[in-house]
Amino acid sequence: MSDKPDNDVSEVFASDHEQVVYCRDEETGLKAIIAVHNTLLGPGLGGTRFFPYATEQDALKDVLRLSRGMSYKNALAGLDLGGGKAVIIGDPSEIKTEALLRAYGRFVQSLNGRYYTACDVGTYVQDMDVVAKESRFVTGRSMESGGAGDSSVLTAYGVFQGMRASAEYLWGSPSLAGKRVGISGVGKVGRYLIGHLIEDGASIVATDPYEGAIQWLRDNYAQVELVSTTEDLIAADIDVYAPCALGGALDDATVAALTAKIVCGAANNQLAHTGVEKQLEARGILYAPDYLVNSGGVIQVADEIHGFDFERAKRRASGIFDTTMRIYSLASEEGVPPSVAADRLAERRMRDVGRLRGVYLP
């Protein structure tokens, strides 16, 4: 997380992860990596990212970083689950097949419950239904299959709760009415987030590199202002910046150009490197830790393990508002950025509860 470097893969692996599994199936073309970071609180839970990484080293670095983030996310969300993540290497539009997904499901099953998978970038509920044909340890399945459905629903709801808490902390009202919110990425989560914000009275400016996403916005939310690039978005006159695409959204140049007073979005691992959180604080920009506010999705799919109940999961995701306020209060008391306060709170729970359990055995 923010106070621990992750730029050296060997260092991250040697110091943190319990298990890393390389998965290959030549007939289907499957090349995947499953990383189990920490099972002190329970089995590792985290999605499967299907992405055309340039190199296997890039894929390894990503899965190590993402799985570690899931340990913190699940701990801070109050779940009795550890951190895990998987990546499938390749372009899903070219190589995703039923056979490949089922081969992947057999590798998930081979871990015998130390890792539960779900959707992520490049995978969908229909894919999880296929993976579930070979493994019992799959969440985020379709509702028709008894699953939680699209986890983007509560991911967006949780980000909205974090945004409301940020507004309460900074402006004294838990509403975005009259505020201008810039959203970078209107895919799975961004489009649901737009609905919450418009209903709350906010105005939206958005960007996305994919024409299909832009056309969807034109068809469904014609009142949303569109800009060509993320650079245009962050330089626009906005009150809140919501990164909702891939990680690394907050780098030195972005922080220097931001006009927003709040950053609160769905993307994972938004801080491009250690120290960005201090730059945000120095500029008076309130940063809602990404793994705190985007945890609604994991809350949704975690509920599926015990028999899914949407209203129960939504009530739990509503708690993101209170946790965000608690993080801001703790940050103020301890004189640290919110991301550091969030790390400390998650680490405290992993330490205090985890010492009672040790390594998870199914």
What can you see in these coordinates?
- It holds the Pfam family ELFV_dehydrog.
- Residues 149-358 form the Glutamate/phenylalanine/leucine/valine/L-tryptophan dehydrogenase C-terminal domain.
- By secondary structure, this protein is α/β, with parallel strands linked by helices.
- It has 2 domains: 9-142, Leucine Dehydrogenase, chain A, domain 1 (Rossmann fold), CATH 3.40.50; 152-295 and 323-340, Rossmann fold, CATH 3.40.50.
- It has helices spanning 9-16, 56-76, 92-95, 98-110, 125-131, 152-171, 188-200, 211-220, 230-235, 252-257, 276-282, 290-293, 296-304, 310-318, 320-334, 338-354, and strands spanning 19-25, 30-38, 44-45, 48-51, 82-89, 115-116, 180-184, 203-207, 225-226, 240-243, 262-263, 286-287.
- The strands form 2 sheets. Strands 1, 2, 3, 4, 5 and 6 form a 6-stranded mixed beta sheet that branches. A 6-stranded parallel beta sheet has the order 9-8-7-10-11-12, with helices on both faces.
- α10 (252-257) links the parallel β10 (240-243) and β11 (262-263).
